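Hi support team,

I'm opening this ticket because the web form for multi-chain structure prediction keeps timing out on my end. I have pasted the exact lines I submitted so you can reproduce it. The total is 551 residues across two entries, so I didn't expect it to be a heavy job. Is there a limit I'm missing, or should I split the entries? Thanks in advance, R.K.
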Amino acid sequence: MSAEETSNAKSTQGAALATELLSAGYAGRAVVQELSIRVEPGEVVSVVGPNGSGKSTLLKALVGVVQVLSGKVLLDGKEITNWAPDAAARAGIGYVPQIDDVFAPLTVRENLEMGGYLLPLREVPGRMTHVLEVFPQLARMLSRKAGQLSGGERKMLAMGRVLMLQPRAFILDEPTANLAPALANTLLEDHIRQLSATGASVLVVEQRARAVLAISDRTYVLTGGRCRLEGTPAELLASPDFADTFLGGTRHASEPAAE
Amino acid sequence: MSLFIESIGFGLITASVLAIAAVGFTVQFGVTDVLNLAYASVMICSAYVAYLINQLGHGQSIWLAMVVAAAFGAVVSLVLNKYIYAPFQRRGTSPVAVVIVSLGVLLIIEYLVQAFEGAANVSYTMTQGATLNFLGLTLTVVQLAIMGLSVVFMIGLHLLLRYTRFGKAMRATAADRVLARNCGIRTDRVITLACLLTGALCGVAGTVFAINTGSFGATSADLFLVLILAAVFLGGPGQPYGAMLGALVIGVVTEVSASVITADYKYVPAFVILLVVLAVRPRGLFSAGTLN
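Hello R.K., no limit was hit. The queue was backed up. Here is the completed structure from your submission:
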């Protein structure tokens, strides 16, 4: 990566992330169908929905891990549809997968270094210092292997690894999935909300609908690979349809799909 | 007693050759996900390239020839990965089927070598150098050079993997290729460089193997491939440090067995150890994860 590209990535604080009529899936079968979403710079947007509703597939399509079958992925209006995952990272997307989110055999320090792989070498220590200010717990375990961390520490490392590049758009797949409820709320409120503070756009998929609504500016509700509802947390909480589906009502049957 | 000590000396030489080969094999496996059995045929092919250089004109230094063999091994390993194994992987061929593909490649290369060079064994034109005695061991200068070379390669690889960005990117790619790409790492380039690096080790291993055995033919490394696999799986596949330890154990045990039992059965105790270790630790001695 050239110095010029690096400085561009730095001067631009955030980028709008959008899809237009996006269909994506495996082996030509669409799991996500004609989905149009939008995340503005500085905004936290969440996607909720039952298991198999296509939430993870949507995120994987955005970062080039799952094939886009039709429609577009746009970053600040620039089309990045079906870009390879490394190209998406260079474009400014930081992706934290749900599982396999750290390099387990590498140390915490090495994981952060790999997060900063695209930076000039001399900028890595400075960035790492910054990331360790955001996640001070990690500073005490730099030499420990990532595979030995607890669930919460591991997720912080995964987020710290992504933060190394100061991405313009964060994409987080069920960051609280393996965490105790108290820890999950801390992570959402203290850290994920903070990611948008510098102007980056944040797209987060969650199973914990009520908790993620609390930190979201807007939320999309997915069922069966399509957008069923969309709105601000206040609007969704007032919607009987939403309450029925997610807040105590029976869950709708969903199509089986790879997540 | 002196025979026993001398056999340890032989064991260390065998271990040195085996370590270069096994470390190259295991790193290649870790990064490319191909258990490349054709590695042994690339070793022999490289040894022949060194032989051709060695026989040029009035005879060329075997060490110069080894450098050419390393370059040859690097290029062939890259070509095999890029044009044979990787396309099979992209088509979703199972890892076991790719192993069988590599077995086919092994036979094809060996027969090609035989077709060009004939069935007769060949030997390098070189001198073994003075014989040195210390600590009860009797070693030639060439044997010492092989051991020194092996130590240098092991230390060099250690420094590369632990302290350079490329080395860490190789370990990251071996650990999780998709996550590495999410970090912006161009894993295809990492795989290309890893093939060149491990292929060069393969070329060096072939040349020192041929120096050590004295004379060699197209199929001479077949049994050695089994020793490589033993060292690799003893240490845990994809584990360079495991392969170093595995090579040391297999090499020394083999040669000591030759002196205390009989040379005919010298490989048996090494494989008994392998089976026992795998029974206790199914993923080998080092099982933290690939390339680590």
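A quick check on our side: The interface with chain B takes residues 1, 63-65, 84-86, 88-90, 95, 97, 100-106, 110, 113-115, 117-118, 121, 145, 147, 161, 165 of chain A (CB under 8 Å). Let us know if the file doesn't open in your viewer.
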